[in-house]
Amino acid sequence: AASAQDGGGRFAFAQVAANTKDEVTVPDGYRAEVLIRWGDPISADGPEFDPETLGTAESQARAFGANTDGMEMFVIDGRIVLAVNNEYANTRVIWSNRPRAKPADDDDIAKAMMAHGLSVIEIAEADGGWRVVQDSMLNRRITPQTPMEITGPARGHDLLKTAADPAGVLVRGGFNNCGAGRTPWGAYLTCEENFNGYFSAADRAYEVSPALRRYGVSARDWGYRWARIDERFDVSKHPNEPNRHGYVVELDPADPESTPKKRTALGRFKHENAEVVVNGDGRIVVYMGDDERGEFLYRYVSDGVYAPGGETAMLLEEGALFAAKFHDDGTGEWLALTPETTGMADLAEICIHTRLAASAVGATTMDRPEWVALNPKKPEVYCALTNNKARGRKPNAGGDETPVGGPNPREANKYGQIVRWRPAEGDHAADRFEWDLFVIAGNPAVHRGANAGSENVNEGNMFNAPDGLAFDETGMLWIQTDGGDPEKRDFAGQGNSQMLIADPATGEIRRFLVGPKGAEVAGLCWSPDRRTAFVGIQHPGGEGGHWPEGGDAPPRSAIIAIRREDGGLIG
Ligand code: FEO
Ligand code: CA
Ligand code: CA
Ligand code: CA
């Protein structure tokens, strides 16, 4: 309800001002507390995090991973369980106790490796807050060494066969898991994004195949040095290993012994999240972004239909893949990726070289599609297009030209936008849709025109780099950002990365939270009673930050629990 006291408008809180503090800022009347940090043990016998050594590979494998990202809440036999992605390890943080923040030994490399993957933790309410249930049988770490089954059309394909797995059916890891999703049958979906950054070649002159180059694989990794401790990451020796990563992985959080399943039917690219929709006819539709400049937006439609309590095993194994084509007149279509349309040999190859398949059909190159979210109140889907400094200038390696147009209206797009589409007749399996831009981010304090943003952006609520999107059950859209450096003029006045709430009907946007220095706000879910919001704070510590402990403490990514002091509903 609107009132002068709460700031007016649709939302029952006063907007948080942009700031560059090294803390989490929430509205008056709210409180944020840390639930779990990188390195906190998730089992009762795990050692406490040591701020001097920053742990070992062995301790890290039993502790909460680094850089929390997508997460989902599950209620399993009355227990509240969080499944959380630990996207990557910031090597400048995890090796910050070493000279020049380099690994001192192989255990340092393995420690950073073990900080990747995901964490499953049971949590419970206690003393007005939340705590991790450290002795829960459901707690689990999944790391880059956890065995995973390859399912779907690409299972057993020649391109997936390696020395360690000559049948192409079983792979270890699980790394760079970014966004998330959930199925109506209670599974967690974790999405493999920048898998390329972990591969290297001992021979620096080694040239990867064009198909691997399209995914950014090269003879140099991003500084992780995994090939030094695990030869499969040397792409010159095991050129098929990268083909085994870049998928959506299904995990049963209720069974800690279960083997996660790589769902190749959902395609291989730099997956952001997986938004699962039960279509009107019961088919499962999954919307997915490929977060890279000039890459695409995808849709999967299952062959079978979902029925509560019915068989679900094949719903993410057998289906059709599509890539989005946006027209300038506000219409769009889903282009089927089939052997006929792409010229590829079979569906397996399409599911492995999905980017190449989407290029072949002429899908629309996008400004880095991040999270996709379905409006629970109507058939309308939103996707954050985070930014694209190269829009109009140069394509992704081996990719397509990226002309300005459609939902990507600005050259050298610094701020990002959110596109939304409505499938024809409300049918998510329909081939046609209509689209518009819900918001074009910008900075009206610095720019006029296109870089000032759309009408629902003003100097009070402005932001950049929309990334995480999630609807709450009341139909409000929450937007999380992975923003630019607030010291730079283009981002002046916008402060640290943040979380905002938006009303899809009116377009109104209000800032709810500001993260600490250098951090990104990544991951959002709610307690079953919606009186706690769990929010991820990823890669704090940039720009000299030491969140959450402050002082000289190592910065630690963490999940925070946000509640209203009067116990009311969030938002
Ligand atoms: Fe891991 Fe595209 O964010
Ligand atoms: Ca993201
Ligand atoms: Ca991002
Ligand atoms: Ca990130």
From TrEMBL:
It comes from the Bacteria. Pfam families: PhoX (PF05787). PROSITE patterns: TAT. Coiled coil: none annotated. Residues 391-412 are annotated as: Disordered. This is PhoX family phosphatase. The lineage of its organism: Bacteria, Pseudomonadati, Pseudomonadota, Alphaproteobacteria, Rhodobacterales.
